[in-house]
């Protein structure tokens, strides 16, 4: 029976994986190897619950440990304190290897993380054909209508900076006498531009994947005969490039056909994790209108600065609440009017009956 005081909050599971997010997936797999059977997983679609505004985060008592490095650091401290059933899977690494591992964490997040974000949010066909339908199926009303777009927009600047944002080609109207010829020329230019952008993305992907293939260099795992936290973090990103049924799968095909060593490594890590006792799912929180408001969560949180996306999100929440309250007030007013009208009609009917009785008395 897992210790209920350790609860990991992550994005929900999808495509045969424990989570649809690479950092959440890495955190689940890491805890399965480090403290098997000692934690629960709470699937959530509300990153605003987290101290840093992102999933995953691990709750223990009144403290929340957000981000993968923070979770690894916390579990390592539990292992040093000889907590029951907890072990440090990086314990056999030398000081130099531990330093390298931490540096590679950052590189995996920046490079492979960009590739994963590109596949889910930067490719228009993938967002509308896979990412958005998946998120809307998991979210309650009204979040399902605007949160997927908000999440995608939050990745846009990062992906544009790294050259991994691919905008859909927009059709324009041509009203000149040469509209047909102009349209053919624009279609040819658009096709060339898309091919050029795709090749740029593929070249960037090859550079990144080549680097990790050389780092692995035919070894079973990166440092030891068993997986470390870096193996887990790398495998989580590779699995989310390999498993989902992307409509736009050019990069996925490249990975599966040309970088089989990385895919095999990710499957070995997945196999090691599967040998651990299964975790239990914590009771999911019930969605309600109260989730539209920001309340204290009862945990110690880091100070988080607002950004334009968060401000816009909060405003949308209040607009939706105002519309809901306005509609409710309108319905109440209309109902009250109907009651008044009915009461007037009753009084008129009683008055008519009194007049008839008076007339009968006179006769």
How does this model look, in words?
The structure is a single chain. This protein has 363 residues and is mostly helical. It is built from 10 helices and 5 strands; from the N terminus they run E-H-E-E-E-H-H-H-H-H-H-H-H-E-H. The protein has helices at residues 22-34, 68-80, 95-122, 124-138, 143-161, 179-216, 229-242, 250-258, 260-274, 308-362; strands at residues 6-10, 40-43, 57-60, 63-66, 280-281. It has a 5-stranded mixed beta sheet with strand order 4-3-1-2-5. Helix 3 crosses helix 4 and helix 4 (124-138) packs antiparallel against helix 5 (143-161). The chain is globular.
Query: How many β strands by DSSP?
Result: 5
Helix content: 55-70%
Record the strand order, biggest sheet: 4-3-1-2-5
Order of helices and strands: EHEEEHHHHHHHHEH
Distance linking N and C termini: 91 Å
Shape: globular
Counted by DSSP, the helix tally is: 10
| Structural class by secondary-structure content | mainly alpha
Round the mean pLDDT to the nearest integer and report it: 81
- Could you give a short account of the major beta sheet? 5 strands, mixed
Low-confidence stretches: 169-178, 288-307, 340-346, 357-363
Strand content: 5-15%
Task: Tell me the radius of gyration.
Answer: 29 Å
In summary, what is this structure?
With 363 residues, the chain is mainly alpha-helical. It contains 10 helices and 5 strands, in the order E-H-E-E-E-H-H-H-H-H-H-H-H-E-H. It has helices spanning 22-34, 68-80, 95-122, 124-138, 143-161, 179-216, 229-242, 250-258, 260-274, 308-362; strands spanning 6-10, 40-43, 57-60, 63-66, 280-281.
